[in-house]
């Protein structure tokens, strides 16, 4: 095979690999998933001292508002089902909100909404998850508060 033929074959192979990689990276499957699955499955990992309230869920009266904070988490989805990856990354996002509440002196996060690419989706029962070829992502925003006792 001549040098020109080898370059043409390698060039074509490179183009195929680049296109294949682009197609696999392009996956961005959006789904709404039950919050309860994560809360039940990972109850022991969550901070029981910081309450979580989703969407317009009722909660005790707020004594002090401490600010609204976003979190944007990703996880490796390799060798996980979409559901497993979403649950794992949702746990990470919830832990991040709870850690922020502790830092700010709060004991709850209220009005938690999905906030993927700053597009808010409010639900009392579901969260938005995005699955790509190798990564899953969940973004949330919520208000850190101190509840009345």
Describe the structure.
The chain has 149 residues and is of the alpha+beta class. The protein has a single domain (28-147), classed as 2-Layer Sandwich (Translation Initiation Factor IF3). It is 36% helix and 38% strand. The chain contains three helices and seven strands. It has helices at residues 3-25, 35-41, 82-104; strands at 29-34, 51-54, 62-76, 108-116, 119-121, 126-131, 135-147. Strands 1, 2, 3, 4, 5, 6 and 7 form a seven-stranded mixed beta sheet that branches. A hairpin with a 2-residue loop joins strand 4 and strand 5 (119-121). The chain is elongated and about 45 Å long. The N and C termini lie far apart (81 Å). Residues 15-24 have low confidence and may be disordered. Keywords: Signal. Residues 1-26 form the signal peptide. This is Excinuclease ATPase subunit.
Query: Do you know the CATH topology?
Result: Translation Initiation Factor IF3
CATH architecture: 2-Layer Sandwich
Listing every helix as H and every strand as E from the N terminus to the C terminus, the arrangement reads HEHEEHEEEE
Q: CATH homologous superfamily?
A: Hypothetical protein apc22750. Chain B
Largest sheet: 7 strands, mixed
- In the predicted model, the low-confidence regions spanning at least 5 consecutive residues are 15-24
The average pLDDT is 89
Radius of gyration: 21 Å
Q: Assign a percent range to the helix content.
A: 25-40%
What's the multimeric state? single chain
What's the N-to-C terminus distance? 81 Å
Outline: elongated
Structural class: alpha+beta
Can you count the helices? Answer: 3
Taken as a percent bin, the fraction of beta residues is 35-45%
How many domain regions? Answer: 1
Number of strands: 7
CATH C-level name: Alpha Beta
């Amino acid at each position: 095979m001549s040098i020109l033929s080898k370059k043409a074959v390698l060039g074509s192979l490179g183009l195929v690999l680049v296109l294949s990689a682009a197609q696999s990276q392009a996956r961005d499957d959006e789904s709404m998933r039950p919050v309860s699955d994560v809360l039940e499955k990972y109850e022991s990992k969550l901070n029981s001292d910081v309450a979580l309230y989703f969407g317009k869920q009722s909660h005790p009266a707020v004594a002090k508002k401490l600010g609204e904070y976003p979190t944007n988490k990703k996880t490796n989805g390799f060798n996980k089902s979409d559901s497993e990856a979403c649950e794992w990354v949702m746990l990470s996002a919830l832990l991040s909100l709870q850690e922020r509440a502790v830092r700010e002196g709060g004991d709850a996060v209220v009005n938690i909404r999905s906030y993927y690419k700053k597009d808010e989706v409010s639900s009392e029962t579901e969260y938005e998850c995005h699955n790509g070829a190798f990564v899953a992502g969940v973004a949330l925003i919520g208000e850190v508060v101190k509840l009345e006792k």
